[in-house]
Write a structure and sequence with these properties.
By secondary structure, the chain is an alpha/beta fold. It folds into two domains: 4-202, Spore Coat Polysaccharide Biosynthesis Protein SpsA, Chain A (Alpha-Beta Complex); 214-322, no CATH class. It contains twelve helices and ten strands. The chain has helices at residues 17-25, 45-55, 70-80, 99-109, 141-148, 161-166, 178-187, 218-232, 237-261, 267-283, 291-294, 306-322, and strands spanning 4-10, 32-39, 59-64, 85-88, 94-95, 113-124, 127-130, 138-139, 157-160, 191-202. Strands 1, 2, 3, 4, 5, 6, 7, 8, 9 and 10 form a ten-stranded mixed beta sheet that branches. Helix 1 links the parallel strand 1 (4-10) and strand 2 (32-39). Helix 7 packs parallel to helix 8, helix 8 (218-232) packs antiparallel against helix 9 (237-261) and helix 9 packs antiparallel against helix 10 (267-283). It is globular and about 60 Å long. The relative contact order is 0.10.
Length: 330
């Protein structure tokens, strides 16, 4: 049994794979397994993975015949993992040599800790920028969950095996739904701590989160899935109220995305995107939202009339555009 299993979902990552894998193979904590799931790559990624697997038995390679997305790919790796703890590393990212050892040390010294965050450095070409979080030593699960809703704390961590098997990656949407598992892990952790190991997170302007496409609306689908999972867990009204406010703010945020970029979307994407916004708008439980928020222009639900709601949003974002205030948050 490995101490830590590292899940690496791979899709057309030939340019970055060597750096990623070399950083994992050079970990000072030797007893790890590296599970690489090739998500039907069309470049030489699979050949690279197989070559590394021949050189080091800690690397296991899973090849998927069809492209299924990051959540399903990671779950394929999770199912065959053996580690006491589970981590992920994206195929274009890498770890400091002592990252796994630093995380394991925290688990060893604090038995009630279920999740340990890495330090994160965002990588923009040759520029490294620290992900700044509010300083903390330990957080309870609820606080970590709440802070992750707006990414005051990031979602790059190592988690106990039992917790990850209880909450595998959410496969409900092609994009964004994998973020839901982070929040469920935090919420169900007794303690969340941080270590000094570093995760280097490469930023790409062409990624799903930066690209203008229909996939951006998957964020609302992922939000709906998250709410359903919270309800299934019978969480408190306080948690549901907090998350409903997040969902509502994301509905407004995605309408801004539509307002700013609709001319760049084809007709089908515009129609589908609006349909997703409308379904989310209809499903919002207004009684869970803060009264001050639903009285604010731009955020009034107008749930009896989609037309009136759209008229509000068009006017709101037009006025904000005049003031230069339309800045995307996603």
């Amino acid at each position: 049994m490995a101490t830590i299993s590292i899940l690496v979902a791979v899709y057309n990552a030939e340019k970055y794979l060597h750096k990623c894998l070399e950083s994992l193979l050079s970990q000072t904590l030797h007893n790890i397994e590296i599970i690489c799931v090739d998500d039907a790559s069309t470049d030489s990624s699979l050949n690279i993975l197989n070559a590394y697997a021949k050189k080091d038995e800690r690397i296991k390679v899973v090849h998927l015949s069809q492209n299924v997305g990051i959540a399903k790919a990671r779950n394929a790796g999770l199912r065959i993992s053996t580690g006491q703890y589970i981590a992920f590393v994206d195929s274009d990212d890498w770890l400091s040599k002592d990252a796994c050892e630093k995380a394991f040390d925290v688990f060893t010294h604090y038995p009630l800790t279920d999740t340990v965050l890495f330090q994160v450095k965002n990588v923009y070409g040759d520029k490294y920028v620290d992900f700044i979080m509010p300083p903390f030593t330990t957080l309870d699960g609820f606080t970590a969950f709440r802070e992750s809703l707006t990414w005051n704390i990031h979602g790059v961590y190592v988690v106990k095996r039992e917790l990850h098997l209880r909450f595998p990656y959410d496969e409900s949407a092609v994009a964004y739904s994998d973020e839901n598992v982070t929040r469920l892990h935090y919420l169900n952790s007794r303690e969340v701590r941080i270590c000094n190991g570093i995760y280097y997170y490469r930023q790409h302007l062409g990624s799903v989160t930066h690209r203008v496409s229909l996939r951006r609306f998957d964020y609302l689908l992922a939000n709906q899935s998250m709410k359903q999972q919270l309800e299934a867990l019978n969480v408190s009204d306080r948690i549901l109220d907090i998350y409903e406010e997040v969902r509502w703010r994301n509905v407004i945020g995605l309408y801004m995305f539509y307002f700013l970029h609709r001319k760049k979307l084809d007709r089908f994407s515009r129609q589908q995107g609006l349909a997703i916004i409308r379904r989310s708008w209809q499903s919002i439980e207004v009684d869970r939202l803060p009264r001050w928020l639903v009285r604010k222009f731009g955020c009034i639900p107008f749930q009896k009339s989609w037309l009136v709601f759209r008229l509000q949003e068009e006017t709101y974002f037009f006025l904000r555009a005049l003031l230069g205030k339309n800045k995307e948050q996603l």
